[in-house]
Design brief:
Length: about 425
């Protein structure tokens, strides 16, 4: 017999119970909001199939280098990664965006052999450590469309349209596209020099002074009183595009017009990450000040990461914001499947048998709701009234003994007893 550990037990202090609270900056998606999220998922899947985007999912963990400053992200963003070292000693991070992992997978699994270009949709969360002011979250949910392996403007337009139609199906109104180009390796360096030369002569704020030499495009994002008025005389990239970038942007804008998309070219709209090139875009709705979707072309990302030039373009919808807006405006949900029968069982024997009966119904495509945990008929009935099912099935001790069940029409109140072996058949008849 093993010695008793009573002495040890006595010395151990009782641990205080764990506080039931999530980590700051992340949040649960609760069942009460579940229908909104499901609606988005259903809409997105339907749309993806129409647009021929195929589902893809990359893991939560990736090599941290996928998101490092060497790929044109800022060192500040790199510091915000959730990093960890795996048991195998690999430097990993929680995925901080979804485009880099898709490129990684594209190369790793030779996806270009199977689809040229590769058109994928994906959804999930991305994480970065953020200062938690203004309701900012560390984890946000995105739905993305990406096209990898082709730099034609028709693909820029297809991801824009997919996101636009997605938002339209979710009843967002007055959608408009904010769009600009970031040029390319040929024309952007020259433009950056012009921009630097201009800003060096201006009295900019301290932050802008710091950014000026390395990230001159960021000066357009400064909201300080000293800097905002300086924008209007600054050189804009449209005047400095090379022929190829000019043609590409022109093609995108022609497609935007062809498709009746309301758009605002904005020469001061820039993306921080250096790997973006050519068109970048965001989608807004009505008066809501934040973008509901954003993306752009990232033809250099693959080269920066893997030394292989593979063009790509993508857009991501910010699902947390979208759900928040759907709730604020109380947008009616799409088709929502209602439960078709409410199952009531009273008594131990009936309750036990009811599990098999409910399963029979469910496997015959009849949705079943129950409240078997409530002991009395009255309590179950009370719950059933809220369920909004056309039929209730009443299975009591008498019925369990006689191998029968009562089918009750919730609207008329009419009820009939049927034998259990006819349950599925009789239920289906009444649901027609
Ligand atoms: Zn160019
Ligand atoms: Zn400034």
């Amino acid at each position: 017999m093993a010695p008793k550990a009573t002495v040890k037990k006595k010395q151990k202090k009782a641990k205080p119970p764990l506080e039931a609270a999530s980590v700051k900056g992340v949040a649960d998606i609760l069942p009460k909001d579940g229908d909104w999220w499901r609606d988005i998922n259903d809409t997105g899947r339907h749309l993806s199939s129409l647009y021929d985007f195929h589902f893809m999912e990359t893991p939560l963990l990736e090599h941290a280098e996928l998101f490092t400053p060497s790929v044109g992200d800022s060192p500040a963003n790199f510091r915000k990664l959730y990093r960890l070292t795996t048991e195998e000693g690999e430097e990993a991070a929680l995925r901080a965006d979804l485009s880099a992992p898709i490129l990684r997978s594209y190369i790793e699994h030779h996806l270009g052999y199977y689809a040229s270009p590769l058109k994928v949709y994906h959804f999930g969360s991305v994480a970065r450590q953020e200062k938690l002011d203004n309701g900012k979250r560390c984890e946000v949910h995105q739905w993305g469309f990406d096209v990898v392996g082709d730099n034609d403007a028709v693909y820029d337009m297809q991801v824009i349209l997919a996101a636009m139609e997605f938002l339209k199906l979710l009843k967002f109104q007055n959608l408009r596209l904010k769009i600009n180009t970031m040029g390319c390796k040929v024309c952007r360096p020259n433009y950056r020099e012009k921009l630097k030369a201009y800003y060096r002569k201006q009295a900019v704020c301290e932050d802008c002074k710091e950014n000026l030499e390395q990230f001159p495009l960021r000066l357009f994002n400064c909201e300080k009183e000293t800097c905002v008025p300086l924008k209007k005389d600054a050189p804009i990239i449209l005047d400095h595009l090379c022929q190829a970038c000019n043609n590409h942007f022109k093609s995108v804008l022609e497609l935007v017009e062809d498709n009746g998309v309301l758009y605002e070219p904005n020469p001061y709209f820039v993306r921080e990450k250096e790997y973006y090139n050519r068109s970048i875009f965001e989608i807004y709705s009505g008066e809501y000040p934040h973008a509901l979707a954003g993306g752009g072309r990232y033809d250099y990302l693959s080269e920066m990461l893997f030394g292989r030039a593979i063009p790509g373009v993508g857009i991501a919808l910010g699902l947390d914001r979208i759900v928040e807006q759907l709730k604020v405006h109380n947008v009616p949900l799409h088709h929502r499947e209602k439960p078709r029968v409410f199952f009531i069982a009273v008594g131990e024997r009936a309750k036990k048998l009811s599990v098999r009966l409910m399963n029979q119904l469910r496997m015959s495509n009849i949705g079943v709701v129950e409240a078997l945990g409530k002991k009395t008929l009255k309590a179950q009935m009370k719950f059933g009234e809220k369920v909004d099912a056309p039929l209730a099935l009443l299975f009591g001790q008498k019925e369990a003994f006689e191998n029968s069940i009562i089918i009750r029409d919730m609207k008329s109140g009419a009820q009939e007893t049927v034998m259990l072996d006819k349950l599925v058949e009789e239920t289906k008849k009444r649901l027609k």
